[in-house]
Specification:
five-stranded mixed β-sheet, globular, Protein-Tyrosine Phosphatase, Chain A, 5 strands, alpha/beta
Length: 179
Amino acid sequence: MIAKRQVLSRCVDHHGRMIIPFLPTALTPIHTIKVPKGHRLSVTALDTAGLDHGSYDAVISLLDPGTVLEWSHPRHHCFWVNDWDEVGPAAPDAGLVETLLGIDLAGAARVLVHCHGGYSRSPAAAMLLAWSLGASLSAIEKGINWRKAHPNRMILGLGEARLNTGGALLALAVRRAGG
């Protein structure tokens, strides 16, 4: 509760008046992929992650370079990467994907994956992690809320090269989220 109060106290308008966000759905993940062996990958936006990170066994953050988080988690893995689908400063690269897929999630039944909005970097990362943990393409498709997803194509492409998926995840993203 302290973490929620701290985050809410920083939600003020330009006059310094406190803004109370609409909370009934704020803690509901945007996407949830169920993975064999008991893992569940939940994808949210940064603001929701700040409120709810304590209820997860592990947290994976994919944030713009320079972003400062006002909270921490004992099993927190943070990546500073721009949400780009092309080469550029802090663009997704093979090193990011290799490190992401190398995270030890043993004993982590509930894993939170987030970026700023929960629509691009984090769904792509969650799709790759789910596949690497043995989820079927059908389970991944069902776990993504496609009305609120446009998975980062560069992250997916780099991950698929590493996982040898034959392009299945990228094809799914293009088919369901659009080109």
